Every structure is written in structure tokens, then in C-alpha cells.
């Protein structure tokens, strides 16, 4: 059986679209990342967080070892989870591109699963998003 890694991701935009950031908490490895990503929508930020997290895992584990791991991805975006689990159609071109990128990243792992969780269960990733947005807002005021 493969080793299981739990990863929580979140993305958010203020004013949607507006300044956006991602938050990734790889619980199993106790790694946390928050990053400002520029102007975007909430959906773009949600996908960006997941892509960032999968790429980061690949880098942390090493390309040769990723097949030994199953990744459980926990998101509070029901829309993104349903799109990734083939329950909703992908109408927008940017979502199709993100889906393809995630699909290709999934091939590197032993398995990747997507789970929708309530926002209250995604507090750490959510806090990382808000921290990155707050830091960006402070920097903007300096100029």
C-alpha cells in the first residue's frame, strides 16, 4: 500500500476578482505555504493553490519517489472538487487548462483524491491565504 499524504489547499481573492493568494498546508509533512498570486478570481486561486501544492510535493518527495505516495487533497471549494471528480463540466477555457495541468501532475503520484470539506475544517490553509493577502496589502501601502 502506498503512503498517504494529506494536503489542505485554499485560494481566495478580495473583491473577486481582485488581489488573490493561495494557502497550502501539507499536514503529513507539516509544511505550510502562503503566497500572493496577483489579480485573480476565487476559482483561479483555488486551482492555483492545488497546482502549487502538487508541484511542491513533487519537489519535496523527489520525482523518483512520488509514485509511492497517494495524495488526499482537501478543499473547501465544492465547485473545484466536483469539477476534478468529473461531476461538473469544465466550461471555461482557463479551468480546462488548470484541469489538464492537475491531471498531468496526478500521473506522477500513486493516486490523488479530492475531497470537499467545510470551511471550518480548512482553517490553516485559509489563514495562510489571508496572511499573504494582508502582507501584500501592507507592502502596497509602502509605495
What does this structure look like?
It is a single chain. The protein is an alpha/beta fold. The chain has a single domain (3-117), classed as 2-Layer Sandwich (Nucleotidyltransferase, domain 5). Helix content is 43%, strand content 30%. The chain contains 4 helices and 5 strands, in the order βββαβααβα. The chain has a 5-stranded mixed sheet with strand order 3-2-1-4-5. Helix 1 (42-61) packs parallel to helix 3 (93-106).
CATH class: Alpha Beta
Q: Strand order across the biggest sheet?
A: 3-2-1-4-5
Low-pLDDT ranges: none
CATH architecture: 2-Layer Sandwich
- What is the name of the CATH superfamily? Ribonuclease H-like superfamily/Ribonuclease H
Give the overall average pLDDT. 95
What is the first-to-last residue Cα distance? Answer: 53 Å
Our count of domains comes out at: 1
Order of helices and strands: EEEHEHHEH
**What is the number of helical segments per DSSP (H or I, 4+ residues)?**
4
Query: Sheet with the most strands?
Result: 5 strands, mixed
Structural class: alpha/beta
Question: In total, how many beta strands?
Answer: 5
Outline the secondary-structure elements.
Blueprint: E1 3-13, E2 18-26, E3 31-40, H1 42-61, E4 69-75, H2 78-84, H3 93-106, E5 111-116, H4 123-142
Parallel strand pairs: 1-4, 4-5
Antiparallel strand pairs: 1-2, 2-3
Features of the shown structure:
43% helix, Nucleotidyltransferase, domain 5, globular, alpha/beta, 143 residues, five-stranded mixed sheet
Amino acid at each position: 500500500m502506498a503512503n498517504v499524504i494529506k494536503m489542505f489547499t485554499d485560494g481566495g481573492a478580495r473583491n473577486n476578482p481582485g488581489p488573490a493568494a493561495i494557502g497550502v498546508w501539507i499536514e503529513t509533512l507539516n509544511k505550510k505555504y502562503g503566497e500572493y498570486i496577483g489579480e485573480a478570481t476565487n476559482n483561479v486561486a483555488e486551482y492555483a493553490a492545488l497546482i502549487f501544492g502538487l508541484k511542491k510535493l513533487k519537489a519535496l518527495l523527489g520525482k523518483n519517489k512520488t509514485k509511492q505516495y497517494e495524495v488526499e487533497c482537501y478543499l473547501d471549494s465544492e465547485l473545484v472538487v466536483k469539477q476534478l471528480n468529473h461531476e461538473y463540466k469544465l466550461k471555461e477555457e482557463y479551468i480546462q487548462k488548470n484541469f489538464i495541468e492537475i491531471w498531468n501532475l496526478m500521473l506522477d503520484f500513486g493516486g490523488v483524491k479530492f475531497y470537499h470539506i467545510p470551511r471550518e475544517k480548512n482553517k490553516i490553509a485559509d489563514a495562510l491565504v489571508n496572511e499573504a493577502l494582508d502582507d501584500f496589502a501592507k507592502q502596497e501601502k509602502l509605495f
